[in-house]
Structures are given as C-alpha cells and as structure tokens.
Amino acid sequence: MLTTLVLAAALAQPPKDAPPKDGVLAFAVRSGYFEKNTSGLAGNATYLWLPDRNAFEGVFALAPPLLNAPRKATPLPETAFDTDGMAVVIRRGPAVIDYKVQSVTKAGDTVTVRYTTTEAKGSGAATFASPLIVSVPRAGVNKVLFVENDKEVGSATTKPPIK
User: Fold this and answer.
1) pLDDT per residue over 33-87, tens digit each?
2) Residue 76 CB partners (closer than 8 Å, separation 6+)
3) Which of 1, 29, 50, 51 has the fewest CB atoms within 10 Å, measured from its CB?
4) d(CA 38, CA 60)
5) Is 39 within 8 Å of 90 (Cβ atoms)?
6) How far is 69 from 58, CA to CA, in rounded Å?
7) Helix (H, G, I), strand (E, B) or coil at 9
C-alpha cells in the first residue's frame, strides 16, 4: 500500500517544464550586474523580459568585486535559464535606486512583479543605471507587468510566447 501511495504521488507531480499555476510564484532577486554601455537602451526607465542567457548578456555584465562593497552579489547560476527568465527594470538618473520586491504573481500568461523603491541622495552630475533583476519561472509567460510603489509603470512581452 505504501508503494501505491508513493507511486500515486509521483504520478501526480507536474512535469518540470510545465507552466506554473496561477498565484504567487517563487522568485530570486539577482544582483552584482551593471548595464553595458553597448546595450542600446536609453531613457529614464527600461522594462524587459529576458528569456535566455544571450538576451541577458546583451544587456548586463557581472560587476567586478569592490573592496568593502556594501552588498554581496547574487549572480545567476549556470542553470538559471534552464527554467527561468529574468524580469528586469533599469532606472537611470542622478541617484542610485534601491529596490525591494514585495511579490511576484502569475495570472494566465502574465507575471506581475510588485516592488518598492527608495532613492539614495544624488551625487551631482553623475548618472546611474540601477537594475532590478528578478528570476521567475518562464514557462507559459508572455507578458510581465511592473508595479512600482503601487503604480503600474511598465510592461514587457515575449514574442513568440514561451511554451
């Protein structure tokens, strides 16, 4: 009987590449990256859905470690794009932006990333590009909505949709 229960539980598990069900998603915030000067992106803010490593590496590079850096980097593991995509916000301006992700949810083919921001004191003429990189399951995702400080501020789509 125990064998039957174990077998039934194993058969009830969805396949690893099955789209996640609607509701709250597991996510990981990645840090330690900077926007490349060659990314071709501009403006005060950019909202992206990066489904693979090539797309990601076209925009970001890992920052070299700094002596006495205030934060520890959380780079992408080698297998990051096996099942996940990256929901990305890049804010540009005279101050560094700190992000705190509140939740990541899925409804149909749309993922919503809710986060808050705080702005560090500006530093004169310098311009900063502050990225938020959130790793989320990519199966079945066609659109990502970004909700900053309780206001929808942008979206990104995948064409064609990822199966």
Assistant:
1) 999 999 999 999 999 999 999 999 999 999 887 654 566 788 899 999 999 999 9
2) 30, 56, 86, 135
3) 1
4) 9
5) no
6) 25
7) helix
